[in-house]
Amino acid sequence: MKNIKLLLTLTTFAALTSCVNGDDYGTPDLSSECVSETPTKQVSDITSIAATDNPTQYMADDVIEAYVTSSDEGGNFYKTISLVSTDAVNNSNSSIGFTIPINAYNLYTKFEPGRKVYVHLKDLYYSYTGLTDSYEIGELYVDPTYGNEIGRISAVKYENVILRGCDKVDEDELVNHITIDQVDDSYMHKLIEFENVQFADGSLGTTYFDPTNTAGTGTNHSITDMNGNTIDLRASEYASFASDPIPSGSGKIRGVLTKYNGSYQFMIRTLHDVQLNDDRFDVDFYPPIVGSSLAFNGSLFENFESYATYENEFPPYINDAAVGSRYWQVRLFSGNRYIQATSFGGNEDNRTLFIVPVDMTSASTFSFRTNDGYDNGSVLKVYYSLDYIAGGLITDATLVDITSNFTISSGHSSGYGTFIDSGVYNIPSGITGNGYFIFEYVGNGASGPTTTMQIDNITIN
């Protein structure tokens, strides 16, 4: 692909970066080499007119200001600076990240993270580059095959058009604390930090640059959160930490978001960005599906007729595959819709919870209907909890077993029965406040039981 764009993936070349040592932003004292200027344009003024893959020369004598987010101190960034508009200090959703390629090394000695810079735009080129989904400012590079592209500003020229500001903020003021599943293009070239993450199992026992697992001149390591969301962390062959082992713990990782050919690449600057000091956690690839409109009501009638068949997302409720991969699902038979759980046809342990929020103070009774199929053992229990946290671990909650108050459909070993009223639970007057009723299905696809259980007409009055 295009030579200059490959460089803009921030992962390539640079044996010369071997002169970069250490994992600390130990910046020389350049306090006398700084300026304070008044910008004449905002970053948004430039990005709003940037055409995709069509570098355009900027003719006016305008200046923009921005803060640096990247650093080439660790050798993972190569001849480029990532920046963000100055409103990022206020955690503005409208802040904009962009990148400037520069034909120089050790840029961190002048342009360290948090440093304000002034960019003199006259005669530079700007564009939105589709391959990297990035706003870019630089000089014009004419690729013999692909035509005009944003290229590096020369080592002679850049010192006259990118000026080191005297203002510097703590980089913590620029950090976006987000989760992996919140990543999108609005965070490009911004400084982001993930908490409660770890390297995926496949990276353990390897190094940041793994010669047996390369993509170009770097290695992509998957990092994951507790719910199994992942993103690639990119490490260059030429990074000063290339041969360091991948840590096995969990914690937080900070870096700059980049992208190449449709795939996000999370770029750390030095090993100081990796703070995995906690014990490793188990990844829950089937997390609780927490409804988007949970409400604690004192009355309810749910017959599931408004849901599509096989639906497992319920806005008023929580559906939790606490063990295994199976959730409660909506099913349809003879024109009637209901929810169903089963371990039949599987080979794993299952503990599947359907959780209904309720105002225990105003509610008086709780009832439902059940039906069983191909019964080879008891699988359903019913609880209430007053300390369960929506979306949290069910093992952290106190569950009070009220199953004995109900008659659960059973005994249909060679087919399905019909729905029966399972009784009424009178909520004791001493149970007050917000709480949950919890239907728990426990089965095992390999060893049993694999009984199918169906629930309908959940009623709270």
TrEMBL record:
Protein biosynthesis as UniProt keyword: no
Xref: InterPro entries: DUF5689
Secretion signal span: 1-22
Keywords for this protein: Signal
Keyword Signal: yes
Name of the protein described by the UniProt record: DUF5689 domain-containing protein
Domain DUF5689: 39-274
